[in-house]
Structure of Methylthioribose-1-phosphate isomerase:
Amino acid sequence: MADQYAQSGEDNRPTEIPAIRWDEPPEGPVLVLLDQTRLPAEEVELVCTDAPALVEAIRSLAVRGAPLLGIAGAYGVALAAARGFDVDDAANALAGARPTAVNLAVGVRRAQAAYRAELVRSGDAGEAAVAALAAARALHREDAEASARMAERGLALLDELLPGGGHRILTHCNTGSLVSGGEGTAFAVALAAQRAGRLRRLWVDETRPLLQGARLTAYEAARTGMAYTLLTDNAAGSLFAAGEVDAVLIGADRIAADGSVANKVGSYPLAVLARYHHVPFIVVAPLTTVDPDTPDGAAIEVEQRPGHEVTEVAVPQAPATGAGGGVPVAPLGTQAYNPAFDVTPPELVTAIVTEEGTVSPVTAEALAELYGRARQV
Ligand code: MRU
């Protein structure tokens, strides 16, 4: 059945897409972001010279995805320090810019701790700024390394669960280079399967309302030459019913201590579908996404976003006319329900793959054991 779908586009650009970089032009240090709100229409850079600009970029999703939010947050602290702004104020504003992805606060606090420790040690704000930047760079590098290790572990798990290869994987939202210092989380596993000749197709949910699947995952997949097909979110059920999905691979924004997984809204219905159709539902996330201080799914704060994201479609090339800059698709004044994430309970998750190991079945004990072991070394 899969072959009846038109072969998707391919191009020869590198598979790694630098989503963020630190630069030091003569005017002073800056953080340069690839503006993800403009993709795939245009590759436009957004230059942040201070933390408020970065907070705005985070809120507007110009920079997004849990691991990258952590990296951006850490660089944001380094930027405030290097430019002589109040580092604690900047750190608090950055950590609170979006509530669900725990990586953001983790990255911010790491750079802030490095800044403070060096300030106490040397009493020199310049040295402290250098320490904050070193912490951000280390997080960036570690995320790239974690990405490679998750890809390896994730592919091994797929091969174990689905002997024979020819994997047809369904994914949701966007989890590749655009959200990572490396090749990403779930997408990196699909890419590893592709390189090993064992990916038959990547099914890409469009991911309403902001189309991270259509705009961003398809953009990433097109660069790799992998066979990918885009579907509307509500087409997933019939795809499972047709026996076309061998596994679901998604990332995560926060994993609670009991193994509950917050990820882009629409992930939970996929987990329910996967269970009904006896298909593995696999979460791929770095340990920075696991939050031992959040006891369970009910304790995860789910970000609520403006209704205009639902009542309008903001497509980069389209003429913008609505209150949020998009084309209205609902009558004026329509109320909308727009949670950015949903929470999948651990009993619906087949496995959580991290760079330090895979937890399956997903239990609080197994997750605590992995987390504790990894954080001790
Ligand atoms: O609102 P977004 O685009 O930041 O949401 C991103 C996601 O939900 C991703 O799936 C998640 O961060 C995992 S990325 C590895």
